[in-house]
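Shipment paperwork, digital attachment
Item: protein structure file
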Amino acid sequence: MAVSIAHLGPSGTYTEAAALVYSNWLTQNFHQESFLCAYPSIAQTLNAAALKQADLAVVPIENSIEGSVTTTLDTLWILDDLQIQRALILPISHALLSHANEIEAIQTIYSHPQALAQCQAWLERHRPNVQLIPTSSTTEALQKLEDDRRAGAISSQRAALLYKVPILAHPINDHPDNCTRFWVLGLQPSAGGNHTSLAFSVHDVPGALVKPLDIFAQQGINLSRIESRPTKRSLGDYLFFVDLEADTRQSFVQSALAELRHHTDTLKVLGSYDILSKNIVNLANL
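Attachment content:
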């Protein structure tokens, strides 16, 4: 039976490219057929997997320039059953797309907020007075560009081919080694791997975060990322997302998690997983 993979649409987004990479990886390694399902937002993509409308969901979690994708973190905190199956790290190379004759003619630029932020320095150098309009994805506005030749969009080379929009400049991201990490999530238990992601809230007492961090230190578990997010209940009330370089199948990790439960208000183990590097496929056409 083919596996359905939800992703942020419409076609041409970087998340769709990540979903295609994962789909190809399933075919090459497990001879597993799959098909992609586009959703209009990251939250709806995750909910599709949580509600069994799709078998898996591919979502961005962190960018090397702009940091964590907060919508992904906030939605995963609300959902209870999704587990990370794999992670993918893909290079992101932004292009300026438009039907305008030259860059100087562009007055408005559309794109996802992450993409706009990843190209901020380029925009300030080349179009400092342009109006920036955020969209739900990097391809949402491309179909509108034909009617407005003073508008442009920041998107991918692949999207330019799909929607037949000329590329005026590429690459325009502020750092040449721009990468995004994606998570593949589903309702199945995680397969295990060298990385583990957790989310937890702590009791409202002084030094509440010190003890959880000390537990990892005592067990010799390295933390590769820690991020706070507001609980949205009251000002100054936070929860924490932590990435560990360890596998929950290891006994010392299980001991650390057992102790951690005594020092957290809510603890969610999002899964242990391996990371598929950006070199697993040729992404030149994505």
